[in-house]
Specification:
By secondary structure, the protein is an alpha/beta fold. The chain contains twelve helices and twelve strands. InterPro entries: Aminotrans_V_dom, Cysteine_dSase, PyrdxlP-dep_Trfase, PyrdxlP-dep_Trfase_major, PyrdxlP-dep_Trfase_small.
């Protein structure tokens, strides 16, 4: 029985272009990118190529890109930097943010910082009127993800940016799930801070970025090094930077084709799922969604029970963010949409990539149907 991997929103298989570049760097680039000798300067070249590659991919100047260890680190740095340098900070984030944002905001609130959580409706949508009222109350930073990792909702970032800036506040956008799946235009959307990880779209794990609007500064949250112009200390991850160059090259060459393939595959998979599991419940905003993500629920079936059965049948899926895996609590995203505890526990997320074969999606739908039928029979 072949295994079918449908958990790309947790992490994606590494692109061949990224893997080959990393292997080459591991074997051929021994230097520290901060060293002045020949080997160090070769390593420095790799890091700077990665910076330029990210900038080109998101339409930003290269000097705006700070390389980090991932989006979790980047999110922490942006939020805590803002609080550190702002008089009377007032931080807002949505109720469906990644844990690396919403948990930081809750920590800041415990530390005495004024904070507010932007609610969503039953489809996970945001009310801009609510945000406008909070901005009128003096909000200084708004943190909102471009695309949600659990339900797939895509949010109107350019519209939010216009509202935030009209009120004199600052906008932070976590673009991790959007990159490689929908167009990401940093300058076009008028974002102040954008944070990224690259392993969701086939880049290497262990490298991320903060992208800064011109004139915006950010301070390091750690001490002990001058790297990244003093904004992120620590020895640069040269093999990951090399892999990032390869991944961004693949995105530039194939991004449009990836998006078209994902849209077609989503329609194919959804049709097959609906046929194999009648009564399927779809969750999220189906009109504004990522082309690779489906959040579903099966009547009367607990999500964890389903996932364990699916794993035994060779289908890998999830019930929410990999950063909260192992928790007995249901997804905070689905709870924020107004679902009761037991109802929220029924949520299952399927996410795939442009390289997922059509036949795998069809076979996964068949296996899902059989699992639902078997688990439903046990409940009778």
């Amino acid at each position: 029985m072949n295994r079918i991997y449908l958990d790309w929103n947790a992490t994606a298989p590494v692109l061949p272009e990224a893997r080959e570049a990393m292997v080459e760097a591991l074997s051929g680039v021994p230097g520290n990118a901060s060293s002045v000798h020949h080997e160090g300067q070769i390593a420095r070249t790799v890091v700077e190529r990665a910076r330029r590659a990210v900038a080109k991919a998101v339409n930003a100047p290269a000097q705006a890109v700070v390389l980090t260890g991932g989006a979790t680190e980047s999110n922490n740095q942006v939020l805590r930097h803002h609080v550190r340098v702002t008089d009377e900070p007032f931080v807002i984030c949505t109720a469906v943010e990644h844990p690396s944002v919403i948990e930081v905001v809750r920590d800041l609130e415990q530390e005495g910082v004024r904070c507010a959580i932007w609610p969503v409706d039953a489809k996970g949508r945001l009310d801009l009127g609510w945000l406008e009222a909070k901005l009128d109350e003096g909000a200084t930073l708004v943190s909102v993800m471009w695309a949600n990792n659990e339900i797939g909702n895509v949010y109107p970032i350019a519209e939010i940016a216009e509202l935030v800036h009209d009120k004199g506040a600052t906008l932070h956008v976590d673009g991790t799930q959007a990159l490689g799946r929908i167009p990401v235009d940093f300058n076009g959307a008028d974002i102040d801070y954008m944070t990224l990880s690259f392993h969701k779209m086939g880049g290497p794990k262990g490298i991320g970025a903060i992208v800064l609007r011109e004139g915006i500064k950010i301070e390091a949250i750690l001490a002990g090094g001058h790297q990244e112009r003093g904004r992120r200390p620590g020895t640069e991850n040269v093999p990951a930077a090399a892999g990032l160059v390869g991944a961004m090259a693949a995105l530039g060459e194939q991004g449009d084709a990836w998006r078209e393939a994902l849209q077609r595959k989503r329609a194919l998979f959804l049709e097959a799922l609906t046929e194999q599991a009648p009564g399927l419940e779809l969750r999220g905003d189906l009109e504004h969604t990522l082309p690779n993500t489906l959040n579903v629920a099966f009547e009367g079936i607990d999500g964890e029970d389903f996932l364990l059965a699916a794993d035994l049948e060779g289908v890998s899926a999830s019930s929410g963010s990999a950063c909260t895996a192992g928790s007995l609590e249901p997804s905070h995203v689905v709870l924020a949409m107004g679902f009761e505890h037991d109802d929220a526990r029924r949520s299952v997320r399927f996410s795939f990539g442009p390289a997922t074969p059509d036949e795998d999606l069809m076979e996964a739908a068949r296996r899902v149907g059989a699992i639902v039928e078997r688990l439903s029979a046990l409940m009778v």
